[in-house]
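Field reference: sequence -> structure
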Amino acid sequence: MEKTMISHIITPKEKPLLFEERWPIMQPTVSKLVRQDCVSRAEWQDLFGEVHRVCLWDERSPDKMYKALQEEIMTFIREAQIRVLQHQDEQALLNAYISEWTRFWTQCSYLPMPFVQLEACLLGKTTSNPQRKQPVQESMVKKLMLDSWNKSIFSSIKQKLQDAAMHLVYKERCNEQFDSNLVIGVRESYVNLCSNACDQLQIYRDHFEKAYIDFTRSFYLQQAGSYLAENGMQEYMKYADAKLKEEEQRASKYLEPGPESQIKLQNCCVDVLVTAFKETLLSECPSLISTNETERLRLLFSLVDRVPGGTEPLLTYLEDHIFQSGLSDMMENASTINQDSEKYVEQLLSLFRRFSKLVKDAFNGDPRFLTARDKAFKKVVNDTSVFSLDLPSRQGAATRVPESRCPELLANYCDMLLRKTQLSKRLTPDEVDARLKDVLLVLKYVQNRDVFMRYHKTHLTRRLILETSADSDKEEMMVEWLREVGMPADFVHKLARMFQDIKVSSDLNREFKEEFKRSREVATDVINIKILNWGAWGRSGDRVPVSLPLELEEIVPEVEDFYKRHHSGRKLQWHHHMSNGTIHFSNETGEYDLDVTTFQMAVLFAWNERPKDKISFESLRLATEIPDVELRRTIWSLVAFPKLKRQVLSYYPECQSPKDFANSTVFWVNQEFALIRGGKAQKFGKVNLIGKLQLVTEKTKDEENVAIMELRALRTQEAIIKILKMRKSISNSQLQAELIEILKSQFIPTRKLIKEQLEWLIENKYIRRDESNINLFHYVA
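Structure field:
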C-alpha cells in the first residue's frame, strides 16, 4: 500500500505591487480604451484587477495613477485637436470635431468603469478636507475627461465651432441643404462639457443659446423690413406667420429641449417680425373687419396675439364695428321692424349670428373676442336711438327716461309664438321651442328686463283669459326657462300661480254651471266665469264702469252669492274691460257670431231693441256709461276694424280718428255687413272683433309705466337695506357696485335712482351718513 507524501511549502510574504511596476502593464489597455481600439475581455477584466490591487496595496499609487491617466487622456486630446484643426473649411471643421467629440463622449461612459476603486480611494483621502464636505456625484474620471477636453480643444476652437454652426443655420434659413446633426453635435458638446453640477446648462446658455438668438435677431432685422417694403402688408403677414412657425420647428431641433430656450427664441422672433411692425399691422384691422375678410383677420390675430397686449386694439375695433354695423342695420330697417316684432327679433338674431360667425372664423372663438361681441351686442339691444320707450321718472310724467323697446318687442314675439297665430300654426313644436330659446338668448343682453316681465305677463294674462294659447305645455315650459335664465323668483312664481289659478277657476266654473243649471233650468254652456287671485294677476286698480246688458247683469249677483257660499272673507272685483263674449248678430245680409269685448257688447246692445235706429255718440255714452276715451276706442273698433272690408257699424260724418267723434256724430247698424270670402259675401260665419284684449285702459297706460319706475325704486331700496344689513357700513362706490350686481337680472339702476333712494332711506332713518365721511353709509338698526 503506497503512502502519499504531502508537503507544504511556505513562501515569503508577497512584495507590495507598486504603481511604477504595474502601470506599464495597464497603460496599453487604457490607451486602447481612450482611442476606442478593440479591447479583449481578458484585458478588460485584468484592468479592473490591476487598478484594485495597486490602489489597495500602495497608498501613494492612487495619486500617481490619476496623474498618469490624465496624461494619457491629454495625449489623445492633443492628437484629436491636431486632426480637427487641420481642416479650414467650416463644414469640414464641424464634421471633424463632431466625429472626434462623438468618439470621446462615448468613451466617457466606458473609461471610468475600471477606475471605480481609484475614485473610491481618492474620495476617501479627500473627504477629510473641509473644503470638500459634499460628495461628488459625477464620476471623477469622467469629469477629468470632460474638463481636459474643454480646456485643451473646446476652449480654443469653440468660437469657430459656434460661428460655423450659426452659418449653417443661416444657410438653412436661405433654403440651402446641410447636415443638421452638425449643429446638434455642437449644441450637445456645450451642454455635456459643463462641469457646474448645480447648473448643467450654464455654458450652453451663455454661449450657444445667446449666439443662436442673436444671429436669429440679426437675420430677420435685415430680412423683415425689406420684405414688407417689396411685398406689402398682406404678403408680409403670411411671411411672418410662416417664419414664426419655421423658427419654432428649427428651435425644437437646434436648441436644448425645454420651454426656457423655446420661449426666449419665440420672444426674439416676435419682437423682430411682429412687435416692430405692430402699428402697421393693426392699421389693417378696421378694413378687414368691415369687409369680413376672416382669413386675413385670423392671420393678423395669430400674429398680434403673440405680443403682450397686442389684441387690445383688435378688441376695440371689433366692438366698435359690431355696435356701428348693428345699429346701422337696425336703423335701415326701422320702419319695418318697429311694428313687426317677428322681424325685429329675426333681425337681432341675424346680427348676433353674423357677429358670432365673425368671431369664430376670424378669432378662433377666443373668449376675449366673445366678450367684446357680447358688450357691443348689448349696446345694440339696449340702444334708444332707434326704438325708444319713454318711462316717466318719479318726479312726474313731464320727465321721461328713454329706454330700449327691445323687451316690449321680445314679449310681443313670445306672444306670437305661444298664441294661436299664423306664425305658431306654420311652425313645428321643435321650431317653436328653438325660437323661444332665441328670445331668451336676446333677453340675456337686455338691461331693463322688468319691462319684459310686465309685457310678458300682460300677454300671458290675455292668452289665459281668452284661452288662445297654442300649447299649454309650452306655456309652462316657458316659465321654467325664464327661471333658468335668472328672472326674479317672485316674478316666475307669480306666473306659475296664474296657471294654478286657471285650473282652480275651471273647477269653480264647472260647479257654478251645475248650480246655475239646476236653479234656472237653462243651458249653461254660454257662461264661463274666471275667478282669479289678485296676488298673482293683480294689475292696475282702475275699474272701468260700464252698463252691462240685462242678460249679463242678472248673472253677476248669482256669481257673487255662489262664491260667498264657498269662500268667506273674500271679495270679488269685476274687471269688465278684461272680459269678452260671443253675440249672435243678424242683419239683412245674414247671421253671424261676433266675438266681442264687454265694451263692444254694451255698445252693440244699444241697437238690440231698435236695430235700424241712428244713435248719437252722446246717447251711446249715456246708455253704456263707458268713459269717453274708452267709448271712442270701442266704437272705432266697430266702424274701422282693419281686418273687415264691411264694418259692423256705419257713421256720419266721416273722420280720421276716434278723437274726431263729436257728440252729434251718429251711428247705425250696417245692414250690408257681411263676412267676405273669395270676394263674395257670406250669409253665415264667425268674426273675431276682440283683437288684442284691452287689459289696461288708455287712462292707465302712463300709470303702468309709472308703476314700473315705482317698482324699481322699491327694489333699489330693498337691495340697499339688504346690503347694509349684511355689511353694517359701506362706501358709496362699493354700494353701487353691489347694487348693480344684485339688480342686473331685472334692470340696471341709474346713479340718479340710487341717489334718490339713498336720500329717502336717510330721511326716513333707515340708514345714516358717516359724520366725517359723506360717502360712507351705516345701517340704523
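Note: Residues 1-15, 126-136, 395-399 have pLDDT under 50 and may be disordered.
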